[in-house]
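Replying to the earlier thread about multi-chain prediction with a worked example.

Input:
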Amino acid sequence: MIDALAGLPGPERRGADRTPEDRGIARDGVRLLVSTGPHHVDRVFRELPDVLRPGDLLVVNESATLPASLPARGSAGYFQVNLSTRYADDLWLAETRWGPGQPGPVPLFPGERFEVAGLVARALAPYPGVPRLSFLRLEGDVTGAMERSGRPIRYGYLSREYPLEAYQTVFARVPGSAEMPSAGRPFTPALLERLRAARILLAPLVLHTGVSSLELEADRPRDPPIYPEPFEVPAATATLVNRTRGCGGRVIAVGTTVARALESAVDGDIVRPMRGFTRLYLRPERGVRVVDGLLTGFHDARTTHLELLASVGGVEHLAEAYSVAVERGYLWHEFGDSHLLLPN
Amino acid sequence: MTVRPGERRLALVTGASRGLGEEIASFLALEGFDLVVTARGEPSLQAAASRFRSHGGSVEAVAGDVTDPRHRAEVRALVERRGRLDLLINNASELGPSPLPRLEAAPLPALERVLAVNVIAPLALVQELLSCLSAAHGSVVNISSDAALAGYPSWGMYGSSKAALDLLGLTLAHELEDRGVSVVTVDPGDLRTSMHQAAFPGTDISDRPLPSVTLPFWAWLLHQDPKLVSGRRFRAQSDRWELPV
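Result:
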């Protein structure tokens, strides 16, 4: 944890407990804090075309959110299995919890058999060093089980449940994320039209994000686990990123998932088409090579996300932005407001 | 791997009584593989085998030295009885003298032993088990080391043997493609094992991770299309595991 970030306010008072639609505003009506150097300007998300420059490139995540939270029953009683990452149709990394606000973990012994949404599950092994996560073998049609019984993963800070649609972005195309790649949520088809008219470019990639439960980091505050996630940077996107940088445009990652995928695909100082699993941990000491700006939400003070943000925006700049955001009442979490970190 | 309903996959893990080999064998048993496991020490091998058996599945343990043709013949007989081998993990390795000598002072008989265990024996197993590997469209995984690439002082004996194993694996990947057999090289990274301790006698190695740190990698690798990973070299603890686009 970076000391300068450690004292930042937690999300408790500032977290959005409902979707923007539930608060009476459109997806693209959330607030947007634009932080450029020492300046922190209040905007509305739908003004993004006025904030960016022609030739800038927005890179977006096409991963769609799964209904990954499944009911389970075993020797420990009734609990939840939150599927995190698909290794194969029948092999998943998953978190076991008692409920959204009851983190558990639910104890499983290696080899234990239990029931998950009507399927037979077997606990294979805990994730090394992170007993909250386990590798599970699931026999049968996991996609079907999710469609029948799965719900979007949610944590205790939300005031109600939402259908899966609330967790899909306009870019969602490839199912695979345990949690919504939320930075893309405020985009709407109309806004995409206006970005295109403003000659701001768009390129897709995929990174399927796993579970992000706070307890994952609370369990190991000094050495937070970064577990591998599937990603793919297509050739056309790699080319666009490299050309944009060559022409003086800015590459803006929409979300921490995109920043991690792009930086994972860097070879020297160019992006190569690539796919596989990545567990790259972006921190200020490493810095970023191809990401110039980051469009994201407001993140919890504890999370590894903050180190990633600081590696794009700089530690002091980020700390200042977060003070400003608290002062001005910006909302944290996946249904909250947005933050654009730009280089000076 | 081609599996028909009701068929069980078979894996052979050498050096399976402790350390990385035990970790891999244990995970394979949990993943539903039947196992043939080998190691030199009979008591520790049998103890490990009974732990693997507790995960279900059949486990045959045969103690011996992979450089010994009679031992390999026993292993071969066990595998041939099944008629298939889905996975061969060439994990058993010889580090050489501890502390590690510099090459200028390397005892040549010890170097011959290192090469026999780390290069000749893995190839011998592939040769002897090839028909069963081919029948299952199986995979060979050779356990290598960053010492194969780096030229670390005093790691020359072990490092050169692993470099030879790397090239052997890459060549086999090309040669065995038409037999349906894939060959992958894996550098597991530094681990808290008795072999690593022998490389650093008297040094506290408790900052190195336990072999279980590689589990996510095995979970990943075992479910990739073998044709896509054959001939590739992976680092189990690296930030990314890359496939061809």
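The domain at 10-235 of chain B is CATH 3.40.50.720 (Rossmann fold).

Feel free to reuse this layout for your own posts.
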